[in-house]
């Protein structure tokens, strides 16, 4: 099927790649179907695109690309609601707030998107870890190395 996207125009997707968010995404509770699309083959960034609303697309990234020590402990209710049977079936993305210049871009480490890749169920959760916030500088480590 073809969908209109925020960043890539019209894109052909396979229905079996659609992620199902039973409760929507916070602030977008009516949005229950998304797909993950490559943003650009030269970057680690992806787009979490609504299937229903072309204007709704989030730039996401695996947090482990920029924060190798990042840890997520899933609650039993999250494991149950996403029907997760084993860790290998789980993908984690974090949503970016892209800013100009790009070095000011922030990442929401407190609210990762958890995906059970086996059955394409997904959910954005909120972590209680005080070390993670909604606006971490994505490039903090690179900036720190420059100075």
Automatic annotation (TrEMBL):
Membrane-spanning segments: none
Which subcellular locations apply to this protein? Cytoplasm
| GO term, biological process aspect, one | bacterial-type flagellum assembly
**One cellular component GO annotation, for this chain's record?**
cytoplasm
The family database entries (Gene3D superfamilies) matched by this protein are listed as: BH3618-like
InterPro entries associated with the record: Flagellar_assembly_factor_FliW (IPR003775), Flagellar_assmbl_FliW_dom_sf (IPR024046)
- Predominant localisation class: cytoplasm
What this chain does, per the entry, is described as: Acts as an anti-CsrA protein, binds CsrA and prevents it from repressing translation of its target genes, one of which is flagellin. Binds to flagellin and participates in the assembly of the flagellum.
Per its UniProt record, what HAMAP family does this chain match?
FliW (MF_01185)
Under the subunit heading, UniProt states:
Interacts with translational regulator CsrA and flagellin(s).
Protein name as annotated: Flagellar assembly factor FliW
Organism listed in the record: Anaerobacillus alkaliphilus
Supply the source organism's classification: Bacteria, Bacillati, Bacillota, Bacilli, Bacillales
